[in-house]
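Handoff note, outgoing to incoming analyst
You'll be picking up this chain. Sequence as last confirmed:
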Amino acid sequence: MPHVEFKDQEPQLLGENQEQQQGEDTRDEEACQGPARSQVSSPSVATSSANRQLMMLEGKSGPYFSSLDSSIDMLKKRAQELIENINESRQKDHALMTNFRDSLKIKVSDLTEKLEERMYQIYNHHNKIIQEKLQEFTQKMAKISHLETELKQVCHTVETVYKDLCVQPEATTLEEEQIHKDREC
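Most recent structure output, in case you need it:
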């Protein structure tokens, strides 16, 4: 089903084109009646025979046509009333939809504001947690750095001690050899 959007459109009312059509129908009827009278060739003969025919038609069919005319008028009135009712109903529907749209916009706006507030509350909560974790991380990194410095000092000390231990036996061995040589001499 295609999507049709009726944003802020006024409902199209029935009967707007009907008034134009009624005006055209009246002109058509006048046009039909006009040439029939103007086709008469001799005015005196045409007038008398036309009067006789008209009197015969009026005498016989007068009540029938008046009844028919009143039925047509009633149908026109009823149709006009129905059209007016439909138009009123459409205007009410349009007003209802406009109110519904406005109400929905307000509710969506309120809901969006509440959602945004809640989102910022969650952001603040997460920021506190992240800040605490970053603080802990910074402290641990500082401690690791301090331990690393201590470890380097210990390693340097061990290295120095090892060198001293390695050098002394050689030195003592050289001294002992020297002493031993001195005794022999």
